[in-house]
Design brief:
The complex is a heterodimer of chains A (about 280) and B (about 250). Chain A has about 280 residues and is of the alpha/beta class. Chain A is about 40% helix and about 20% strand. In chain A, α4 crosses α5 and α8 packs parallel to α9. The longest helix of chain A is centred in the C-terminal third of the chain and has 23 residues. In chain B, α3 crosses α4. The radius of gyration of chain B is 23 Å and the shape is elongated. The chains are: A alpha/beta (about 280), B mainly alpha (about 250). At the A-B interface, α2, α3, β5, β6 and β8 of A face α1, β1, α2 and α6 of B. β8 of chain A pairs antiparallel with β1 of chain B.
């Protein structure tokens, strides 16, 4: 099983509108991440662009449609499509979400939450075993941004993720913005959550922006909207975490209201500065 | 989570008339309606976005708000059957064909069909088209029996309305203006390299290419084109198709 091995520096979620700017100069970016589903056509500009990026940068393929948290079997056609994309680009890493998005034959196009129970744990592990067997590579599983809880949950999320990693050998993708969003939405302590997180299995970090609204009782409800710069409290959590763990490959995502390339690049450079400081402290 | 719970959750996401499923909570004990609403709106807004990126001319014709409303109705009745959203909406035009609120825009489905074909051409396999110079080298004797393999991106769009002109006007390809010659239009959709092209076809041209694309021999394709358009110019049509890059091989 090929391990996930991105550079321990900053990367950026690739948006096609940035291709010309990125391609025109050497970028201070160590890796680009793309959504697998956008590269499942046979050919055309998406593949031409990714082939070009692949020549100069490490690549992470990030799936958003596999539905690992589904109580039904995985879509075998989709697994094959994922394998084709991975075989085509030989990415340094492949990741997916602790969530579901397909039910019966309907694709619901969102990362939907699941309760954490012995039954869902067994199901998620079985699905990850299948993915890793078919792809021949270790996958990373990402913690979700959630908006509600399930009465039937019996296992704490960090414990659930740790157990999945222990049983399947998968790595974890720690989305710090998702931690902050979920902590606010469920009135938990984000620092305590990160303190419990099994960081020894984290192979990548995600950073992004969120928006704010309120729930039915008027309490703050944060939405994982990927449409703003990374917010200050998320940067603070990230810096503390990296101070503790040392450098981990870190990706900035900005998927909606996408800014000009230099703005996104500056976000990645801010993450990279934190990574470099941590690396220097370790070396000292 | 049992399968039944997931089924209930899924059904309530797609149909806002259904109640928020039982078993969902919030830390403050609030009714989780707004919280569930975040998922509902993510699903719908994400899918409307996927459709609007495939059908920009249709969105421009009916307006953003109206497009979102018709997309919402399509999504509710025809949710995606695969995570491959780049192909979602291939049947949106057929749905709009019988959609009452757009009955007064009869050309809309044809504009949408053209946009769907352009999307398919965009993602089609990359292949170098047959060299146009090859047409001149074909022996006249064997010409009638010749069959051609279409380029993977090639397709024909047909309309009883000036749908090609209307599409071009609503994507900024040409200036918006009154259409004096309100007549049917056909086009070849093709991506020989990285850019999708739309070439207007003369009368008989669509039938000719449709025949060739489905494997009919050149002689018979010509006969069928002639039956539709008495002045059909074989050499001009064949040269036009080759120059556009419509074929990848001679069988």
């Amino acid at each position: 099983m090929k391990p996930s091995e991105l550079p321990r520096r900053a990367g950026v979620g690739f948006k096609p509108e940035h291709f010309t700017a990125i391609n025109g100069a050497t970028q201070p970016i160590s890796f680009f991440e793309v959504h697998a589903e956008n590269y499942m056509g046979d050919g055309g500009p998406p593949h031409a662009q990714l082939r070009k990026l692949r020549e100069d940068y490490a690549v992470s393929i990030h799936g958003v449609g596999l539905s690992i948290g589904s109580m039904q079997p995985l879509d075998q056609d989709h697994l094959v499509r994922l394998k084709i994309v991975c075989d085509r680009y030989e990415p340094e890493s492949f990741s997916e979400h602790l969530a579901w998005s397909t039910h019966d034959t309907t694709f619901l196009n969102d990362l939907l939450p699941l309760p954490y129970t012995e039954a869902t744990l067994a199901q998620v592990c079985a699905h990850i075993d299948q993915v890793q067997t078919i792809l021949g590579r270790q996958m990373l599983l990402e913690n979700p941004a959630t908006y509600l809880l399930f009465e039937e949950s019996t296992i704490e999320e960090t414990e659930f993720l740790a157990e999945v990693a222990r049983r399947t050998g998968c790595g974890l993708l720690l989305d710090v913005n998702n931690v902050f969003v979920a902590a606010t939405n469920h009135q938990m302590d984000a620092r305590a959550y990160l303190g419990r997180f099994p960081v020894q299995w984290v192979r990548e970090i995600h950073l992004s922006g969120h928006s704010e609204t309120i729930d039915d009782a008027g309490a703050p409800l944060l939405i994982d909207s990927h449409d703003t710069p990374v917010k200050d409290p998320v940067w603070a959590l990230y810096e503390e975490l990296i101070g503790r763990t040392g450098p981990i490959p870190s990706l900035v995502e900005w998927d909606n209201d996408v800014p000009e390339w230099p703005v996104l690049r500056a976000e990645a450079e801010a993450a990279d500065a934190i990574l470099k400081r941590a690396a220097a402290r370790r070396a000292a | 989570m049992s399968l039944a719970t997931q089924s209930e959750f899924a059904a309530a996401l797609i149909d806002p008339a259904l109640a928020v499923p039982d078993g969902l909570t919030a830390w403050n004990g609030s009714r989780p309606a707004r919280r569930f609403g975040v998922y509902r709106s993510n699903v719908t807004i994400g899918l409307i976005g996927a459709l609007s990126s495939r059908f920009p001319a249709a969105e421009r014709i009916v307006g953003e708000e109206f497009f979102a409303a018709m997309a919402r109705e399509f999504i509710r009745l025809h949710p995606p059957r695969s995570p491959l959203l780049l192909a979602y909406g291939d049947d949106f035009a057929d749905f709009i064909e019988s959609f009452e609120p757009t009955r007064e825009i009869p050309y809309l489905p044809d504009v949408m069909r053209l946009e769907a074909l352009r999307g398919r051409a965009y993602h089609a396999a990359d292949t170098v088209p047959l060299d146009a110079a090859l047409v001149a080298t074909i022996e006249p004797a064997g010409l009638a029996e010749l069959t051609l393999v279409p380029h993977p991106s090639a397709s024909v769009a047909r309309s009883a309305y000036p749908a090609i002109t209307i599409w071009a006007m609503n994507t900024g390809e040409i200036e918006l203006a009154d259409i004096d010659d309100w007549t049917g239009e056909d086009a070849l959709v093709i991506r020989p390299q990285m850019i999708v092209e739309v070439h207007r076809l003369p009368p008989g041209g669509a039938t000719f290419l449709e025949e060739l694309f489905s494997g009919t021999a050149l002689g018979e394709a010509y006969e069928r084109a002639l039956a539709e358009a008495a002045y059909f110019d074989l050499s001009a049509n064949l040269a036009g198709a080759f120059t556009a890059g419509a074929f990848m091989a001679i069988r």
